[in-house]
Amino acid sequence: MSLAEASEARKARLIALRKRKAGEAVDEANVDAEPVVKHRSFDPTTRTLKKHTPDEDAQMEDTVEHQVEGLAEKIIAEDAERRAQDLDLFNIAPKRPNWDLKRELDKKLSKLERKTQEAIHTLIRQRLAAQKGQSDDIVGAMNAEQRAGENDASSDEED
Fold first, then answer.
1. Which of 36, 70, 94, 130 could bridge across to 140 with cysteines, CB 3.0–4.6 Å?
2. Rounded (10°) angle between helices 99-132 and 138-158
3. Is 43 helix (H, G, I), strand (E, B) or coil?
4. What whole-number distance in Å separates Cα of residue 149 and Cα of residue 146?
5. What is the pLDDT of residue 25?
6. Which residues contact 43 (CB under 8 A, 6 or more apart)?
């Protein structure tokens, strides 16, 4: 198949496609065939094609544009009313003014609470150990030595 034959075949296919889109019969043998009548614009009572008039489009009332015609103004008016109500001072002030501070500080305070309890327990242990005379604390050790010295002095006096 040469290039000339290929181009002629392509031209024939394009012409057939144009005729099909235009609604004409695609029969290469019969050139004078009547056009195919589609039922969208065909009036079966008069057996003629309907004419399109611009008045038909104007009479349509159920379009989206007609349904949302005053919607934008209505929304703007409602928004203005809500803003007027929101400007009231009582609506601006929170009911619990420091709730966010408490929420943020609870995490930090829980850690501090645990450390505080540990410190209290160590202090109690040190005092109990100091009373018994077994202390790692310098002050507790000094107090324990002083008591031990007093006990030795009292025992020496008894002898």
1. 130
2. 20
3. strand
4. 5
5. 58
6. 49, 50
Task: Give the pLDDT score at 29.
Answer: 47
Opening angle at CA 47, ends 60 and 57, nearest 5: 10
Residue 140 tokens, joined: 């507790």
Query: What does the pLDDT average to over 96-124?
Result: 87
Provide the whole-model pTM. Answer: 0.26
- Buried b / exposed e over 92-115, threshold 16 CB at 10 Å, is eeeeeeeeeeeeeeeeeeeeeeee
Burial zone of 50 (CB within 10 Å; 0-12 exposed, 13-18 middle, 19+ buried): exposed
Strand runs labelled E in the chain: 42-43, 48-49
Which DSSP category does 159 fall into? -
